[in-house]
Amino acid sequence: MNLNNAVFEAAFGTANQLPPSDLPEYCFSGRSNVGKSSLINKILGRKSIARVSSTPGKTITVNFYKVDNIRLVDLPGYGYAKVNYAEKERWSDLMETYFNSGRNISLVFQLIDMRHSPSEFDVSMLEFLKGYNVPYAIVLTKCDKLNKSEFEKQLVSIKNFLGELALNVPVIPFSALKSIGVAEIKELIG
To answer: Which pTM value belongs to this model?
Structure first.
């Protein structure tokens, strides 16, 4: 597979717009502003195939990127407090339909900001994935913001905090700025 062949296919904002799943899908999930778009851009070697914003809550659609015979899927961020109730309901319906419609999901990369403990939303998402036997890997973003001792302390702390949710799954520290974790993520995609 040549990641340089990536093209943006489409974005869908409601559950009834989602297309059939005809290729293996590698999904990127996490709270708003955790770095999903930056990660996608980094692994694809592009500066702006996925839209990056400094404002949380900008990815409100499911975005599909085709790479040879697979799809990368940028899921809308969760946990942004300034979103109204109707928008939260739309997001919930979109995500529930996405994960419960028999899609060909090969792996979900669950992104968590390494500088902080996993949020209630992060834990709920991991419990959902584990409960539905959806394969996942945990990606700890923004690891370059920590010094060496903070990095080691947070890595152990997050793994302990997540307990069984982090057992027997890859836990990958990642930095878009310093290219940490890029090779490991690409290897999981194949």
So the answer is: 0.91
